[in-house]
Amino acid sequence: MADPLDDDEIERKLPEDWRFDGDEIIRTYEFDSYGSAVRFVNDVADLAEAEAHHPEITLRYDEVEVRFTTHEVGNVTEKDLRLADYTDGEY
């Protein structure tokens, strides 16, 4: 099991455009169309499935909110930060 990071470490390592709130990291991505947003959600879902680490994803017409946390430890871990970077690569 992964070790939780302390708040200062999370803030230091947080990828650009992500924010730390409570026990999760969050980013909202903006798109030109609903179809683009859906394709992004599908790409993130494929990544999450491959990593067996599933974010909470909220789809709106032209934006997608992604939230990562490691539920087993009740906070953010290195895996969450790594997957946030990977998610940015899908954008």
UniProtKB/TrEMBL annotation:
One GO biological-process annotation of the entry reads: tetrahydrobiopterin biosynthetic process
> Which EC number(s) does the record attach to this protein?
4.2.1.96
Q: Which domain of life is it from?
A: Archaea
* Any single Pfam family the record assigns to this protein: Pterin_4a
In its UniProt record, a GO molecular function of this protein is: 4-alpha-hydroxytetrahydrobiopterin dehydratase activity
Task: List the SUPFAM superfamilies.
Answer: PCD-like
Protein name (database record): Putative pterin-4-alpha-carbinolamine dehydratase
Q: Give the species.
A: Halolamina pelagica
Source taxonomy lineage?
Archaea, Methanobacteriati, Methanobacteriota, Stenosarchaea group, Halobacteria
